[in-house]
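Before relying on records like the one below, remember that each one covers exactly one chain. Contacts with other chains, cofactors or solvent are not represented anywhere in the record.
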Amino acid sequence: MSYLVLARKYRPAGFGSVSGQEHVTRTISNAIQRDKVVHAYLLTGPRGVGKTSVARILSKAINCQNSTSAEPCLECATCKEISAGTSLAVREIDGASHNSVDNVRDLMDSFKGLPPPGYRHKVYIIDEVHMLSVSAFNALLKSLEEPPPNTVFILATTEVHKIPETVISRCQRHDFRALSVQAIEDRLSHVCAEEGIKADKESLRLISRLADGSMRDAQTLLDRVQSFCSGTITADETSRALGTVERRALTELSQALLSRDPGQVLAHVSDLFATGTDPGTLLREFVNYWRELFVAKLGGEPRLKAMGLGQDSIVELLRLTSPLEAVDIQDLWDLAREGADRCLRSGQPRYGFEALVVRMATRQPVAELGEMIATLAAQPEPAAAIRAKPAVQAAVEASRVASPRLEAPPARAAADTAPVPGKAASAGTPLLWEDFMRGASASAGKMLFENLKRVLVTRFEPGVVEGTGPEFNVTTIGRDKQKICALLNDFLNQKGLPSMPNWKVAFVKGKGAVESSASGQPGVSRSGSPEVEGHPALQSLQKIFPGSKVEQVRTKN
């Protein structure tokens, strides 16, 4: 007798033996118990998760002669015939090979007869239904909507997006999920116990992870590994049989990478490829391992357990990530994921992988800008820098013009602006437009203040203010001349000077403060002078950003 593969031998025979699809099996079981079986089901989901098995279990359950529940007895004649594939009441066809209109018409002709003796329903299972042609779908629509009362359609597909919406709307849809690693591992443990196969947990976990959510793929891989091994199945032999990467090798590679040792990293990569590892497999395993590191740092032990990892692997991942910051792990995870995608598309994946791991190993830790600024602010200034400050300020003051573009500055303390009692300013005291703007920032309206910021004052003395600016600002200032005069007199009083009854406020269209500031004159000091270059703040910035060049230094009073 020919060997029956594990995927067929251990195909689920009842709803209770279907792994990881309780949301589907419970719904269908309740419908059978309550006699609410619908005429058309659509089962969709990834490969190897139980769609066809559930379709066969459903066909047995609704025709079972002995069962009093939703589970088929598997002992009556109908159950045995359906399991053997010899039943005349259950017809299973492949959508890929029966995709024409003529095939659908032949199917429709068979609807007319009653079920064979001993059966209550005729069941039509169409696997890979998305392969039907458009004409075949159209011919099937009416039968799906109003079939004979003794007929049940079960459509199964892995690509539900290819099925017309008119077909989907006529069926009760059930979406199957990819199986978790833990669910697959539990099922494989049961199969090994039934077959007398000795396998350690690490090898079963490796097979479960490589199955990518498919129970059929996992059982097929177990068959392959069983044939390769002569005794107990171990993780090392499983890796050799399936051409995968040992977890120990990935751990050593990641440890060298996190230790910032490019030479050791390249040595580990060379050892991996020397064993004949497929580059695509290595890249996928590497990305999966770094995903586990990412989850270990951000989600901790609970999330790792939810991923189906063993306690030894969890301890190993937490140990590797404990000295690292979360932002560094996120950055490295992004590098690994994006770099692996590029390598898989490359014609030289090995060289791309070597460049990727060296880049990860030589990457500088992420430094928060806020922390750098706080560190600079906390550093005491050396005496030489304190002596250099007056020279820097003098250079900056000498480069200013009458009206720089100012953001609304905070008003100075009263001790700075109020005149000293008993000591009035002399008539020859020069007036600065900056001082006036500081005082006007609190008392002038927001619109007027913004317009005054954008004009360039060329003359400012008691009774006279002249300047140039953009046409819109000049026109708007002209409408507020009375208010400006009141502000100017308040400014003179603060300086200890008498008010002026008639102010000449003359602004004409021309160059404004914005253009003057852009030219590098007001409030801006060009880098290059020894005083500026020697300032400790600039030196600290250049240490943090080596190779950078400071072009301008803007001061704030």
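The longest helix spans residues 279-306.
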